[in-house]
User: Which sequence fits this backbone?
């Protein structure tokens, strides 16, 4: 025979943002730590090696921060002019940065003075990166050139002069030591191969390119420029996969989450958006106080660092996994009860009979199953349930009414209990979705407790409050009706074409309100 | 070939199974229940209907096992006959003609050659218990007129009479009286409930009675839910009773277990209560049986109970209060709101079933397929509660979607309305809830229909409501990156001058939607939802609306409350014809242009079948039912019939079923009733084979060697021995020669035994036929694999017979090995 069927809890649509796995994941960060830098933060880069320090480039300084430090643990300030694009090598031991005067400086993390200086660009170097073999540096500059440098003897190996405007972003492949990509203000993104002296693929982005990003596999390229983010399939020779237009100002920075499943983009419109890399839909978005110039994610997405134009660095740390075994643990059955019969092998002719799985019932359902109606009502009127999930309370009241026992459940309550019921009514009576059920309950309460009114000042006060609430609601409805009447008159005088649809809409509203007043 | 007589209305969908207590066979293998004019024999293990005993000409009112032969069954009926049946073969043995209407039947072990029946004399409400002497006679039909009076002024229901303590006394209850008649003393004692004497509206009337099988103890059930246990009732002064009270509503039935150690009771709570040792605190429950318990019966072996429920169901319950089988008929005890529908997948009839459920009922096998729980809430069976009612349902898109509407209205303003949309899940083979719409309309929903056009890619549903709107719901994609999902949303809301929308209907190709607003029919374009045109006849509110089909798709039919049937031409937008007909039911045939309309008059209901293109009906059948017909439906036939007569051609491809106000499901048939009512499916006999002990195995093997035993024993004896006996001339001579010319038995014996021995020549001659028979039997016993094999054999039969035999040997060896595995060695360990 069918078992007990639990009470159906009416589900109401949740207004606002939909709760998904992604919103839960990306909201699970602490409140940001704000660090003031000297100028606009143009680049943030995480070291790939523990302890996952990050380099922040702002104005003419490069600060190295520890993961949880508020103060820089190291500063490189030997730049005559603005520094750009401080980037860690893969092993986290070297750091390279370009500068406004066209020089590129290579630092040892433990040292202070630059280890190497690469001279050759005539204008500001906005992008530098290490190649996959760790011994070369790629740089792009405002003199339209892209250069490849050898670290051991600090010499220029190659120069590519294919761009026709500033080269502002670049990225070296993580797999192939000879491949790297640069984006330029001439609207193109070019992939260069150090073995061929020329670009192998060139794609037209359509806007000045602000940021490029290669996927770890090297197969997909993401470019950002203007309001667009475009994803290119490099294995198909640079075919456009998707074009995303979700920001309403220029997109300035791109970043992949550690799993590679999500793509993040920062923009001058002060938003960071998170995309799924399978469907390229926005799954989450963050708001910041100022236009965003740089963005970086730590190992395992533990930290989000965002640099802004007003020189503020915002650092968000992931909340540590809550450990909830502080509660006193209930005594569990002994170990042998679990292993009993577990090592028995099924024989040929044995018939396996599974024990039917026990259906979990909520406490109020257990009470209702055993016809403890007052107990069930008490349980859902407890503040923890009544405030957090009023729909459960209302559903139980509705169920009791359906069973024809609501009056019995409400009767025979003392001052404290009845004031709890009245509190719930006062809080929720005016909500349209609960009103039909609660008005009925309120009528029953008034019928039951009318003879004893005046005995308890606390309860009397609650009744007066409830009365006031109902009067206020009626006044409010009357006002609404008056407004509606006026609007109807206005519409009646108009003879334009669009009026019928509006009229119809209002009429249905009016019908709703009429019903409310009747009740 | 079917003989084409006149068309008759026949009842289908079985009758109620819960009219009387079910009776178990002595070995608890079968359970019998009365069902209309028949008695049905069900297997308790498989729930299968094994036999239908038919022969009574009126409602069967009582069945009892023959106390002297447990393989026979007595039954009595309103037609005044008591019949004796052999239930294992389903054969009528004897008929005793009593003459007057028999209301109940009782048998007693000690009463020789007589049974007890309840008859009514003179006044309609006064019944007598009489004993009927059943004369011994060899003829099939015997008059049994020897009645002896036992008790007067008793209740009609057999629940109110019980025989106790091996037939020493009989107890009967009526209103506030308990009367006990002692057979030995031939005296009657009468007890009146003390509390009932003064009060006019006392609620403790007797409802049922049961007697302890071993002791002098009578249990009575009362309307206030109490059970009283009476003792010492042989003395009218010193009698005592104790009270058991758990039921809060009337006690419907009581039964003692075979040993008398426990008492079973049941009522409207649909909880079976077992009182152990007749003590108040010692009770066990089996709750949630689904519907009011009407009857309780106990098997003579004591291992099974059976409860009959008001929703036309019997539950076989094991001794330890575990339900083991459910025998469910067509649920009939509630109002049918949804009407009759056909599930396009299973071709099952779908209608309201148990509270909050839709039942899927197979018309072919006369069996309920399953119940779909729509409301999904705990059913509280209190009297006077306003329940949530399942009011509308519709199938769409070839059975892929099901829409249901449920409502509950407590007061004028408090209407709870919910629409649910269910999708068919191929994996689980059932309907799964997809979308739940709370308050889809402001007022009652009057109709809903799916757009079933073949070309429509997007499922569309239309609901009409008394709030003056009709809403169009479409299936939309609701998927995001996390999941793929579809859901239903409202696409369009239409209204016409704030009239109540009453009906809706899609045209066959789905291009037009007709919605009736009281007296006015509006036609909407289903692409743009533009109002195309309106029809108004000012002939009362539209009750039914349907489009013509196939060649008649340019017609729209509407039936109004004032008894006018209108047919509009959609091309000319004008009234084509109208007829004066008070249409109650109008159903289009999905396989043809025909439309069936059932009209209601003071005389009864008449059926008209017509095509929209011409106002002259194809077929008229007057007086199909005396009562009002509520719903009708065309059911497509699996195999088209071929009625040549023009009048019956409308039944060629579809069968018409209709449901009357008293919930009887009727249809039209031309076959004779016997032919019609025998189930076509092969009846499976529940054969419980013996446990395979080594003894059985040795014997079985022996027999197998002799006769290639493959089937079960019973079949084997019939099938294999019969041809043998026919072949042997000695046996045929023995059997066919009249007895008086035969020589003495001692002379014949040796000849007979010799004939049974297999001689050498016959053995060799019979070898090949033996093989063939083995093959055939294999085919019947084993599964498809074997079938393939036999086909192969047929192909290669002449070319390579030797190979086949080798192959077969390996098979039989395999079978032997399998049998070894099944051997039950538990007997060795047993002490």
Assistant:
């Amino acid at each position: 025979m069918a078992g007990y069927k639990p009470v159906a809890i009416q589900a109401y649509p949740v207004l606002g943002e939909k709760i998904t796995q992604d919103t839960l994941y990306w909201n699970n960060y602490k409140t940001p730590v704000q660090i003031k830098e000297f100028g606009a933060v143009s680049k943030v880069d995480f070291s790939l090696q523990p302890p996952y320090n990050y380099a922040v480039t702002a104005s003419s300084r490069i600060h190295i921060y520890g993961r949880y430090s508020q103060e820089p643990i190291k500063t490189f300030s030997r730049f005559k002019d603005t520094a750009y694009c401080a980037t860690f090598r893969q092993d986290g031991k070297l750091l390279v940065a370009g500068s406004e005067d066209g020089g590129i400086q290579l630092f040892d993390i433990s040292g202070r003075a630059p280890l190497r200086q690469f001279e050759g660009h005539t204008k500001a170097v906005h992008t530098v990166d290490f190649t996959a073999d760790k011994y070369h540096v790629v740089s792009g500059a405002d003199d339209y050139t892209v250069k490849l440098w050898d670290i051991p003897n600090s010499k220029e190996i190659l120069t590519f002069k294919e761009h026709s405007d500033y080269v502002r972003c670049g990225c070296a492949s993580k797999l192939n030591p000879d491949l790297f990509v640069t984006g330029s203000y001439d609207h193109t993104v070019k992939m260069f191969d150090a073995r061929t002296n020329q670009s192998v693929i060139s794609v037209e982005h359509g806007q000045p390119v602000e940021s490029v990003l290669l996927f770890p596999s090297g197969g997909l390229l993401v470019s950002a420029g203007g309001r667009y983010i475009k994803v290119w399939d490099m294995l198909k020779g640079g075919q456009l996969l998707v074009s995303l237009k979700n920001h309403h100002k220029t997109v300035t920075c791109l970043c992949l989450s550690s799993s590679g499943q999500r793509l993040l983009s920062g923009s001058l419109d002060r938003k960071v958006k998170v995309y799924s890399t399978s469907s390229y839909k926005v799954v989450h978005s963050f708001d910041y106080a100022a236009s965003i110039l740089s963005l970086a994610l730590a190992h395992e997405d533990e930290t989000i660092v965002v640099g802004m134009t007003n020189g503020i660095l915002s650092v968000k740390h992931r909340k540590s996994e809550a450990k909830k075994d502080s509660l006193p643990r209930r005594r569990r059955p002994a170990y042998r009860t679990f292993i009993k019969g577990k090592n028995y092998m099924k024989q040929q002719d044995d018939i396996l009979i599974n024990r039917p799985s026990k259906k979990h019932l909520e406490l109020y359902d257990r009470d209702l199953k055993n016809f403890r109606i007052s107990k069930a009502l008490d349980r859902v009127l407890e503040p923890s349930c009544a405030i957090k999930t009023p729909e459960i309370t209302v559903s139980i009241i509705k169920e009791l009414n359906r069973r024809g026992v609501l009056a019995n459940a409400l009767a025979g309550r003392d001052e404290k209990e009845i004031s709890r019921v009245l509190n719930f009514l006062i809080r929720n009576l005016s909500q349209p979705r609960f009103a039909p059920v609660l008005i009925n309950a309120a009528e029953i309460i008034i019928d039951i407790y009318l003879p004893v009114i005046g005995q308890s000042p606390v309860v009397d006060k609650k009744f007066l409050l409830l009365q006031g609430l109902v009067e206020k609601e009626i006044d409010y409805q009357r006002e609404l009706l008056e407004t509606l009447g006026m609007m109807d008159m206005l519409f009646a005088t108009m003879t334009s074409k669009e009026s019928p649809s509006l009229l119809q809409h209002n009429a249905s509203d009016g019908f709703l309100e009429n019903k409310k007043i009747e009740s | 070939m079917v003989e084409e007589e006149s068309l008759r209305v026949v009842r289908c969908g079985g009758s109620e199974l819960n009219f009387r207590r079910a009776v178990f066979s002595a070995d608890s293998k079968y359970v019998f229940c009365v069902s209309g004019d028949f008695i049905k024999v069900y297997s308790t293990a498989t729930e299968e209907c094994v036999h239908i005993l038919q022969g009574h000409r009126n409602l069967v009112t009582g069945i009892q096992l023959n106390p002297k032969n447990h393989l026979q069954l007595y039954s009595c009926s309103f037609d005044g006959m008591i019949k004796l049946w052999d239930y294992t073969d389903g054969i009528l043995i004897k008929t005793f003609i009593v003459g007057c209407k028999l209301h109940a039947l009782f048998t007693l072990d000690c009463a020789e050659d007589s049974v007890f029946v309840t008859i009514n004399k003179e006044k309609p409400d006064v019944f007598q218990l009489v004993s009927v002497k059943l004369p011994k006679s060899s003829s099939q039909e015997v008059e049994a007129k020897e009645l002896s009076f036992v008790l007067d002024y008793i209740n009609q229901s057999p629940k109110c009479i019980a025989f106790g303590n091996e037939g020493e006394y009989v107890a009967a209850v009526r209103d506030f009286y308990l009367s006990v008649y002692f057979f030995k003393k031939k005296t009657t004692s009468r007890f009146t409930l003390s509390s009932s004497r003064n009060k006019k509206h006392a609620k403790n009337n007797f409802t049922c009675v049961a007697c302890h099988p071993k002791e002098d103890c009578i249990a009575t059930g009362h309307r206030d839910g109490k059970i009283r246990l009476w003792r010492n009732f042989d003395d009218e002064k010193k009698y005592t009773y104790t009270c058991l009270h758990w039921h809060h509503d009337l006690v419907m039935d009581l039964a003692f277990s075979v040993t008398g150690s426990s008492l079973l009771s049941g009522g409207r709570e649909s909880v079976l209560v077992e009182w152990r040792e007749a003590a108040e605190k010692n009770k066990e429950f089996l709750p949630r049986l689904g519907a009011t318990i009407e009857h309780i019966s106990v098997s003579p072996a004591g291992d099974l109970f059976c409860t009959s429920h008001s929703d036309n169901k019997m539950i076989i319950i094991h001794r330890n209060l575990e339900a083991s089988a459910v025998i469910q008929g067509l649920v009939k005890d509630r109002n049918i709101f949804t009407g009759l529908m056909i599930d396009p997948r299973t071709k099952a009839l779908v209608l309201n079933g148990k509270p909050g459920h839709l039942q899927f009922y197979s018309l072919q096998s006369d069996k309920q397929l399953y119940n779909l729980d729509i409301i999904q809430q705990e059913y509280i069976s209190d009297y006077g509660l306003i329940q949530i009612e399942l009011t509308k349902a519709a199938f769409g898109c070839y059975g892929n979607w099901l829409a249901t509407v449920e409502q509950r209205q407590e007061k004028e303003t408090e209407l709870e309305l919910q629409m649910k949309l269910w999708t068919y899940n191929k994996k689980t083979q059932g309907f799964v809830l997809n979308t739940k719409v709370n308050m889809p309309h402001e007022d009652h929903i009057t109709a809903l229909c799916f757009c079933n056009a073949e070309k429509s890619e997007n499922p569309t549903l239309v609901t009409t409501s008394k709030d003056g709107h009709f809403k169009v719901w479409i299936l939309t994609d609701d998927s995001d990156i996390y999941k793929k999902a579809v859901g239903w949303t409202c696409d369009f809301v239409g209204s016409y001058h704030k009239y109540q929308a009453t009906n809706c209907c899609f045209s066959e190709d789905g291009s037009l939607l007709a919605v009736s607003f009281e007296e006015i029919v509006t036609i909407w374009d289903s692409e743009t939802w533009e109002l195309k045109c309106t029809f108004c006849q000012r002939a009362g509110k539209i009750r039914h609306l349907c489009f013509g089909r196939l060649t008649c798709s340019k017609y729209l039919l509407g039936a109004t409350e004032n008894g006018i049937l209108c047919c509009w031409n959609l091309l000319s937008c004008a009234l084509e014809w109208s007829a004066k007909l008070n249409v109650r039911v109008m159903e289009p045939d999905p396989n043809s242009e025909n439309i069936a309309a059932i009209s209601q008059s003071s005389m009864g209901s008449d059926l008209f079948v017509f095509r929209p293109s011409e106002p002259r009906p194809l077929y008229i059948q007057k007086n199909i039912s005396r009562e009002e017909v509520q719903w009708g439906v065309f059911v497509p036939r699996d195999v088209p019939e071929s009625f040549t007569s023009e009048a019956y051609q409308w039944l060629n491809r579809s069968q018409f079923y209709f449901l009357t106000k008293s919930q009887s499901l009727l249809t039209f048939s031309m076959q004779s009733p016997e032919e019609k009512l025998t189930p076509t499916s092969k009846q499976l006999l529940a054969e419980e084979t013996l446990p395979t002990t080594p003894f059985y195995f040795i014997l079985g093997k022996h027999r197998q060697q002799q006769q290639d035993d493959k089937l079960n024993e019973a079949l084997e004896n019939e099938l294999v021995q019969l041809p043998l006996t026919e072949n042997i001339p000695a046996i045929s001579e023995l059997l066919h020669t009249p007895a008086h010319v035969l020589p003495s038995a001692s002379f014949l014996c040796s000849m007979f035994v010799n004939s049974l021995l297999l001689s050498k020549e016959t053995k060799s001659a019979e070898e090949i036929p033996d093989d063939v028979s083995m093959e055939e039997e294999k085919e019947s016993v084993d599964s498809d694999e074997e079938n393939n094999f036999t086909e192969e054999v047929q192909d290669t039969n002449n070319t390579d017979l030797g190979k086949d035999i080798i192959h077969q040997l390996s098979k039989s060896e395999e079978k032997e090995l399998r049998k070894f595995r099944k051997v039950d060695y538990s007997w060795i360990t047993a002490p």
Remarks:
- Residues 672-691, 707-725, 761-806 of chain B have pLDDT under 50 and may be disordered.
- The CA atoms of residues 725 and 731 of chain B lie 6 Å apart.
- Chain B touches chain A at residues 286-290, 315, 323, 373, 376-378, 380, 382, 384-386, 388, 408, 410, 413-414, 438, 442, 467, 480-482, 495, 821-822 (CB under 8 Å).
- Chain B has nine helices and 57 strands.
